[in-house]
């Protein structure tokens, strides 16, 4: 799958940007030239040799704050995606197999979660559980999980009624066997697409929440937090919001690009792209 | 003892508008090694009959015994155990849909054996490949990379791999072009001659007539005629059977009838 993504130019761009952001998340705090929490004498300075991206209203180095804040943003996004993945995919697949009561309950739960505005709900839950990135991200993950629920349920439904699954059942396969050998492979590509999409949503959410000051206590730097601080002093440094905005946008864009690339290479059309270029026929996807 | 004994089988589906009767008091039996054709038009309940025998559709009333076991009362777990023995297998109409597009031929063929937990899987697969005359090189291919006839032979091979005593064939040649149809029919004849009981379901009298010992005609969920093939073809009793025989293309009818001394 990964090798196939790299055959697409968009896939290479997406993987490149995401690798760069991941590198920032791992090495960012060590690369930061200054202490991101320590204020200096120069306040609201423009870019210079000493401070490449200038300093903020407390004289803190903006580059250091962005580098140091990348870890929180990336980890938050990963947490949102993983929570949504687990909370959505497992009931999504099981809703097809565990009978009508379970199906009804999970479907109504998913409807309920979709109906709630997740950012507002996340704010409310952090008020209840305490202000922290894990609490906020866990809540957002649960709120986004209906996306995974619906995607995996739809993919499972289309496979569960297929003749090759019936053929396996006729040979005495159990539900577990069917899910492992037939369902899982078919559900994986749409889930990968949804995962890349959610990672993008996760970035926006972490940035939005930290912009609002939720999830992170003020001195700790985050991309959204830096953006919020910059907006307060727009008249002094009008160009300043561009850098954190660009980071957030580039990451979200790369996640969406990756989602597109995964969709393009998955399934039989994708296999043909890699294996059969110009050779043999590509059958239409059935069932 | 019969291998398959169906007595007074009723199947109906519940619809909002009321019950939809698909099968009404169907009785049918198959001895070991016997080949029975079930003929009927679309909607006559042919596929439902096969699916009920396999336990994919629940019988509303009646009794189905496979090799002496009454399957109507089986719990899901007991069904799985029965199926794992591989006594009964099923060949679908459309091999492109009945083979997982993401599994290679090898994996598709191995699946029933792996479910059984059998040993010596590769040897059994090579043996079955020779039997359906497929090349070993095809083992690594996906169904989409095979021709229609090859695909259906893979589907037949998958059904044979557990050495079943009864194979249900649901329109096994209807999705194939005429060259492939002949190949698969030849294969089924060999299978019959090797002593496997076949229940051959089709809307096409032509493809069943040459292979079945007996023909049962299914009309609107009821078996209206169940007699030796030659009798059904030469002296149909039920008006529907007569209509079916008339609807077989003329050239083939002339072909088949002349040797038996009946003027076309």
TrEMBL record, chain A:
It comes from the Bacteria. The chain crosses the membrane at residues 12-32, 74-97, 109-129, 135-152, 191-216, 236-259. GO terms for biological process: transmembrane transport. GO terms for cellular component: plasma membrane. This is Peptide/nickel transport system permease protein. Pfam families: BPD_transp_1, OppC_N. Belongs to the binding-protein-dependent transport system permease family. InterPro entries: BP-dependent_transpt_permease, MetI-like, MetI-like_sf, OppC_N. Keywords: Cell membrane, Membrane, Transmembrane, Transmembrane helix, Transport. Residues 74-259 form the ABC transmembrane type-1 domain. It is a multi-pass membrane protein. It is found in: Cell membrane.
Automatic annotation (TrEMBL), chain B:
Pfam families: ABC_tran (PF00005), oligo_HPY (PF08352). Residues 6-245 form the ABC transporter domain. InterPro entries: AAA+_ATPase, ABC_transp_ATP-bind, ABC_transporter-like_ATP-bd, ABC_transporter-like_CS, Oligopep_ABC_C, P-loop_NTPase. One of its GO terms (molecular function) is ATP hydrolysis activity. Transmembrane segments: none annotated. One of its GO terms (biological process) is transmembrane transport. This is Oligopeptide/dipeptide transporter. It comes from Actinoplanes italicus.
């Amino acid at each position: 799958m990964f090798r196939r993504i790299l055959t697409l130019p968009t896939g290479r761009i997406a993987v490149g940007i995401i690798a760069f952001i991941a590198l920032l998340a791992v090495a960012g705090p060590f690369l930061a030239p200054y202490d991101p929490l320590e204020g200096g004498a120069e306040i609201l300075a423009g870019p210079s040799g000493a401070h490449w991206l200038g300093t903020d209203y407390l004289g803190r180095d903006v580059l250091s704050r962005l580098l140091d804040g990348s870890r929180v943003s990336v980890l938050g996004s990963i947490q949102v995606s993983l929570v949504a993945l687990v909370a959505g995919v497992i009931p999504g697949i099981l809703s097809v197999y565990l009978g009508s009561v379970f199906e009804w309950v999970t479907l109504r739960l998913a409807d309920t979660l979709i109906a709630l505005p997740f950012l507002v709900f996340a704010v409310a839950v952090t008020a209840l559980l305490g202000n922290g990135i894990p609490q906020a991200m866990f809540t957002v993950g649960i709120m986004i999980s209906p996306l995974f629920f619906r995607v995996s349920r739809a993919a499972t439904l289309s496979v569960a009624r297929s003749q090759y699954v019936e053929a396996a059942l006729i040979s005495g396969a159990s539900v577990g066997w069917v899910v492992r050998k037939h369902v899982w492979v078919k559900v994986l590509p749409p889930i990968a697409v949804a995962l890349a999409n959610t990672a993008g949503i996760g970035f926006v959410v972490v940035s939005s929440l930290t912009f609002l000051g939720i999830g992170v206590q003020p001195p700790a730097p985050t991309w959204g937090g830096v953006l919020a601080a910059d907006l307060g002093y727009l008249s002094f440094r009008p160009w300043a919001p561009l850098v954190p905005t660009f980071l957030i946008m580039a990451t979200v864009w790369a996640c969406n690009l990756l989602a597109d690339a995964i969709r393009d290479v998955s399934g039989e059309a994708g296999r043909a792209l890699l294996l059969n270029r110009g050779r043999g026929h590509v059958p239409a996807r059935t069932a | 003892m019969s291998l398959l004994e169906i007595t007074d089988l009723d199947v109906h589906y519940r619809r909002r508008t009321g019950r939809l009767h698909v099968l009404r008091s169907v009785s049918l039996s198959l001895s070991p090694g016997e080949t029975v054709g079930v003929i009927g038009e679309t909607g006559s309940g042919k596929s439902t009959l096969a699916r009920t025998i396999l336990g994919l559709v629940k019988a509303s009333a009646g009794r189905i015994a496979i090799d002496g076991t009454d399957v109507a009362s089986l719990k899901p777990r007991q069904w799985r155990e029965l199926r794992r023995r591989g006594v009964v297998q099923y060949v679908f109409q459309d091999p492109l849909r009945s083979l997982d597009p993401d599994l290679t031929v090898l994996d598709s063929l191995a699946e029933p054996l792996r479910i059984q937990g059998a040993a010596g899987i590769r040897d059994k697969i090579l043996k079955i490949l020779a039997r359906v005359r497929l090349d070993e090189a095809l083992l690594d291919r996906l169904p989409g990379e095979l021709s229609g006839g090859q695909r259906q032979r893979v589907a037949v091979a998958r059904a044979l791999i557990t050495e079943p005593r009864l194979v249900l064939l649901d329109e096994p040649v209807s999705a194939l072009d005429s060259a492939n149809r002949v190949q698969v029919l030849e294969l089924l004849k060999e299978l019959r001659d090797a002593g496997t009981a076949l229940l051959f379901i089709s809307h096409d009298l032509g493809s069943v007539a040459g292979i079945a010992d007996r023909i049962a005609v299914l009309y609107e969920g009821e078996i209206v005629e169940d007699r030796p093939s030659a009798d059904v073809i030469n002296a149909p009793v039920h008006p529907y059977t007569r209509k079916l025989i008339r609807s077989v293309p003329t050239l083939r009818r002339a072909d088949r009838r002349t040797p038996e001394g009946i003027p076309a």
